[in-house]
Amino acid sequence: MDFQFSDEARMAIDGAKRFAVEKLGPGAAERDEKAEVEVKLLKELGELGYLGMTVPEEHGGSALGAVAYAGSVVEVAKVDAGVAVAMSVQNSLVNDAIEHFGTEAQKGEFLPKLASGGWIGCFSLTEANAGSDPASMRTTAVKDGDGYLLNGTKNFTTNGAIADAVIVFTRCDLGGKPANSAFLLKKGTPGFSIGKHENKMGIRSSSTTEMVFTNCRLPKEALLGEEGKGLKIALTTLDGGRIGIAAQAIGIAEAALDESVRYSKERVQFGKPIAELEGIQFMLADMATEVEVAKTMLFRVAWMKESGAKRYTKEAAMLKLFASEMSHRVCHKAIQVHGGYGFMKEYKVERLYRDQRITEIYEGTSEIQRFVIARGILG
Amino acid sequence: MNIAVLLRQVPDTEAKVVPDPDLRGRIMESEIKFILNPYDEYAVEEAVRIIERGGLAPGGQVPGGAGGLPLSGGGGEAVGFCIGPDRAETALRSALALGLARAVLVSDPAAVEADVVTQGRILAAAIKGFAPSLILAGRELIDTQEDALAAVVAHFLDIPHVLGAGKITLDGEKAVVLREVEGGSLEIAASLPAAVSCSKGLNEPRYPSLMAIKRSKAKEIRKVSLAELGVQSGPQKSRIAELKAPPPRAAGVRVEGEPAVVAAKGIEWMADVAKVI
C-alpha cells in the first residue's frame, strides 16, 4: 500500500488550496449572507483546469484523476462550500455523464468547453414529487417526428441559473413500457427556461433553481446515452458524484475543526485557554479522528474510481453516508466549542453548520445510502 | 537569451518550526511540509513573463567558460538553479509548473551544508555555462531571512547585482530596476548581464494550471555533482551555531481601578518592573 499522493495530485491540491484561500476566502461570508453566485470565480477555477479534472486530455481536460479531484474539492469546501458543490456537479455529474454516455459529437462539442470553464453545466434529475424516488418523475419526452418534445418542471437543480449545458432526465415511452431517458441541451433552447431560484439554508453561494420545459423540442442528437436507459445513467453517474459530495462534507468538517482548534487556544475561561480543559480536548480529539477516518475513506474510494474499478456503488454510498453524517457531528461540536459565539454570524462555524446540512440530503439522502449499502451487503 | 532563476526550498509558512534537539542549528524536518521560497515565485514569474514576451533583446550575457555546464538550450530559456537536498525537487517541480523550462539541482551534502558565500561560488560555476543575460532571485529566504545569495553569485560572475526590485525594465543593454525606499523610490540601471533580487509587488505570480502541472512532469530536473561542476565546497566560513525557539510568552499583569490610577500604575510598572520606558 502506498498512501502518498503523486507529485501531480499534491501540486493540484496545493493549487486548489491556494486559490481557495486567496481568491474565495475574502468574499465567502458575504456571498453566503447575500446568497450571491460568483460565476467569475468558478470560471477562473475552470480556466486552471479544476472543472475538468477527470476529462481526458483529448477532450480538453486535465485528466488528473479522481484522487486529485477529491482532494481539491476538500480544499475549496474548507473555504466556500457553495463553490465546492458547483465544482463537484460539473466534474463528477456533468462531465462524467457526457464522457461515459455521450456520443463522439456530444463529447467533442461539450467537454472542451466544460473542462476549461468556458461553460458551466448542471444535472437536472429531481422533481417536486420525485426526490429519493426518481423513477416517479413526471417530466416527459414524447417522440416528435425526428426528435423529442419535453414538458415538465425539474427542481433543486444545482448550477441551474448559471448553466450553459443541461443534462435533464425525463420519462419516456419505450415500446409501450414506461422508462426514463436523459438529454443534453444548451442554454437558450426554445421552450426551456429557468424557474424559481431557491432561497437556501446553506451553500448559499451556489445556484439552485427550477428548470422549466414547455414544449421544448430537441433533436434526436440531444439524447444522452440510449433511449430508456436514463435511470441507469443517473444512478451510475451518482456513484462518482458521491465522492464529490463526501469531499465537500469533509472540507466543511475540516474547516470546523481548524476553527475550533484556533478558537480553543484563544478563548480564556477559568483563567486559562479552554484548549487546556479536558472537556474541550476530548471534543477536538473526536473531531480530528472523525475527519481523518473520512479522509482516508475518501481517497480510497477516489482511488477505486481512478484505477478503473467497474463499480464502487457500495463503497461510494458508505463514504457519502459516513462523511456527511461525520460532518454533521463535527460541525455540531464546533459550535459547542465556540459556545455562544458559535451561534453568531461573525464566526465561520455558524456558516459551516448550515452548509453541512445539505450533504446528508442531496445526491442521495443518508437513508438512500443505507438502502444502497444494505443491498450491496445482502445481494 | 537566457534567464537563470535562483531557487530555494523553505518550510511552509503554516509549518510549525521546532529546533532539532539532536542536530544543532537544524530544525525538525519530519513533520514539515516544504515549499518554494515565496519570494522566488516573483523571480520565476518575472522570468517566465520575459520569455513569454519574446525574451530579451540581444545584449550582454555571462560569457560561458571552462568548468561551466554545457547547458545551452538554443533560444531563450528560463532555467532554475538550486542547491538543496533531494526533497528540494518538489520546489523545483512547482517552479517548472509556473513555467520554467527546466531546472538544475546541486544536491551534494557538501554544497547543501555550505555557507552562503560558498553556495554562491558553486552556483556561479553552475550558471556560467548557461550564459544568462539575467539572473533573478527572491529578495530573501522566508525562514532564515538570508538575502545574500544573488549578490554572491553576481560577485563570482563579476556582474552587477541590484537588490529588491519592484519593477524591472529591460532593453538590450541594461536592466532598469525600480526599488521602493523610505519616502520614495530609486531607479537603478545595471548593465547586462546582471543579477536582480525580486521583491513582493514586482508581479502577481500566476496559479499553476493543472495542464501546466502535468507538463512540468516531462521537464528535466538535472542533478549535478560538485565534481561535474569542477568546484569544491571547501571549509565552512560561517555556520548556524544555535537555533532557538522564542521564549514562551510570560503571563501579563492585570491592573484594576479608576482610569487615572490604572494609567499611573501602568507607567510605574513599565518603568520600574519591565524597564521598557
List the topology elements.
The complex is a heterodimer of chains A (379) and B (277).
Chain A lengths: L6 H18 L3 H7 L4 H9 L18 H14 L1 H21 L2 H12 L5 E4 L15 E5 L2 E12 L6 E10 L2 E10 L5 E6 L10 E11 L4 E2 L5 H37 L1 E2 L2 E2 L4 H29 L6 H26 L9 H10 L8 H13 L1
Parallel strand pairs in A: 1-4
Antiparallel strand pairs in A: 2-3, 3-7, 4-5, 5-8, 6-7, 9-10
Chain B lengths: L1 E6 L1 E3 L22 E3 L1 H15 L25 E6 L5 H9 L4 E5 L2 H4 L3 H13 L3 E7 L10 H9 L3 E5 L1 E4 L3 E8 L2 E8 L2 E5 L11 H7 L4 E4 L1 H4 L29 H15 L4
Parallel strand pairs in B: 1-4, 1-6, 4-5, 5-12, 6-11, 7-11
Antiparallel strand pairs in B: 2-3, 8-9, 9-10
Describe the 3D structure.
The complex is a heterodimer of chains A (379) and B (277). By secondary structure, chain A is α+β, with helices and mostly antiparallel strands. Chain A folds into 3 domains: 113 residues, Acyl-CoA dehydrogenase/oxidase, N-terminal domain (Butyryl-Coa Dehydrogenase, subunit A, domain 1), CATH 1.10.540.10; 109 residues, Butyryl-CoA Dehydrogenase, subunit A, domain 2; 147 residues, Butyryl-CoA Dehydrogenase, subunit A, domain 3 (Up-down Bundle), CATH 1.20.140. In chain A, 52% of the residues lie in helices and 17% in strands. Chain A starts with 6 loop residues before the first helix and ends with a helix. The mean pLDDT of chain A is 96. The N and C termini of chain B lie far apart (57 Å). Chain B is built from 8 helices and 12 strands. The radius of gyration of chain B is 22 Å and the shape is globular. In chain B, the strands form 3 sheets. Chain B has a 7-stranded parallel beta sheet with strand order 7-11-6-1-4-5-12, sandwiched between helices. Chain B has a 3-stranded antiparallel beta sheet with strand order 8-9-10, with no helix packed on it. In chain B, strands 2-3 form a two-stranded antiparallel sheet. Chain B folds into 2 domains: 228 residues, 3-Layer(aba) Sandwich (Rossmann fold), CATH 3.40.50.620; 29 residues, no CATH class.
